[in-house]
Amino acid sequence: MRAARVYLIRHGQAGLRARYDTLSDLGREQAARLRAWFAAEGITLDRAISGPLERQVETARVAASDPEIEPRLAEFDLDAVYRGIAPLLARDDDDFARGYEALQAAVASPHAKEHRQWTVTDVGVFRAWYEGRYEFDGESWADFKARALAARDLVAGIAPGSNVAIFTSATPVGLWLAGVLGADDERAMKLAGSCYNASVTTLRIDGDELRLLGYNSIGHLEPSLRTFR
Questions:
Q1: Cα separation of the two ends of the chain
Q2: Would you tell me which of 27, 192, 193, 205 could form a disulfide with 170, CB atoms 3.0–4.6 Å apart?
Q3: Three-state DSSP class for 223?
Q4: Total-model pTM
Q5: What is the dihedral of CA 25, 198, 193, 111, to 10 degrees?
């Protein structure tokens, strides 16, 4: 019998920065294309599992069905990281302070390109959090990583031949793949950074091991529907 397969799916395009934890209209279309892809490939899902975030759950509902909710699949809370760390970085780094002020002014417009890309300011905040440079009242990188990787126990006991879709976000996808490939955290971040919205990464379960069959597939998305944020 065919080995069980896990389809690790990043959520569709999210909303603007002020309401990021939603799906945009384009994100809902991406999720609908996922549903059509499963049907065209003849893939019947035995389970759909989603992180608890609105953008993750809505992607699952459009692409598959009402999912089981697994809190460990949530993305790290970038807003909380910003609230805790950005003021400290701005205090210590004048260049960051200027960039942070400019970013806040730019995203006041819903048409700003900064809504759909990572900026130097975003990277600076993320790096300070990832490297543990500041203490703040929020989840640390180490705790986030441990949580996301602990969720791999979801695939334990899946029967041969089963198809399971797991709807999550870019960083958990990167961490799971780094674990499969024996890669370090820096490589995990690069994998996460290249993860398209509504992409499919396919894993095969061999005994107690996950093996990579395909990464970041977007064949179901025409070029105009391919986004990173």
A1: 38
A2: 192
A3: helix
A4: 0.95
A5: -10
